[in-house]
Amino acid sequence: MSIDKTDPFREARESDRTVVANYSDERIPMILRHREVRLAARDWQTYSSDAPCRVPIPEESDVRQVRQLPIEVDPPEHTDYRKLVLPFFQRPLDPTMAPKIEALVDTLLSEAMTKTSVDVVAEFALPLQSRALTHLLNMPMEESELWISWGTHVFRTGGDSLDTEQAGALDRYIEQQLDRAEDNPGADFFSELHRAQFKGRGLTREEMTGIANLTFAGGRDTIINLVSSGLGYLAQNPKALQQLRENPSLINTATEEFVRYFSPKTHIGRVATKTLDIKGEAVEVDQRVSLCWASANRDASVFEAPAEVRLDRKPNPHLGFGHGPHSCLGAPQARLVMRSVLKRLVERVSTLELITAEQAIEQIGGIERNVGFEQLHIRFSE
Question: Per the omega criterion (within 30 degrees of 0), is the bond before 315 cis?
Fold first, then answer.
């Protein structure tokens, strides 16, 4: 069995033409080259994020009414909102966090090694992401059971279809937690939102909801895709697992390489503030443009042998966590989770055997991209 991870943007990128993603009646030209994606990501005056529900592709106006913060505003407001939540999102940099995440991995590995096979998506990556989030947000571990029940994406139950009922569960949960924190404040994320000061005032309920909505939606399926894709690769490439076992100092560079190679987030939307021309594709004011991280991460002008996984790749200027002022707040958490998986895996597991796999396919106009798995069954052996 072979897991396909081709680069669907290679031909267009190398021939210097654009790809247009079609969603309903909307045409979204995609910026594909590494240099051009970086430039656009920094140029928020031209490629604006000030577009509620339109930064994700496809847009999410049918499943949420709140503006996600800070990702859906531009500087200087973006900078100010980001400063408010940065202390929580930098918690993974605290040395005391790594043992906590590794303990979660240990529990899941112990369970996995008692079974003939494990669905890495539902039985490993999903619970790991949810339980690790309790440490990030300083919430009780019991909360993770509810978060696990939401599945791999809080706005989708499968494929690209948005699910209003699924999104409603998140809305209700956030409201309940904000009410609880207002009546009985503690040291958790929701309580800190009530204490936060923005430009000399407290946050409105809408602002708190927007920050919380992004927190639960933004780093969920991406971390799950990263972990499951990394384990799938190691199951198919036992020499790579052995390389990490013999040289665990490669775990950091391997983590970055998995982020580059798998690019858990394909692209993100920006709204044009003026008329543009993208490789011959006319863009009008208020039309969306895609910054394609996945394509930029395979750009041969930047990465030698971009279709290969090189666990020791360095330097590795990937854009897997975005770039510029809107770069991913959750990057430290994603890195810590993936490093913890690799560290405990090479210390405890002798072999990974791929049993069955069903890849998740993302439809992007006329292009199909493999992004993570619907299910991935692997046997873990001591």
Answer: yes
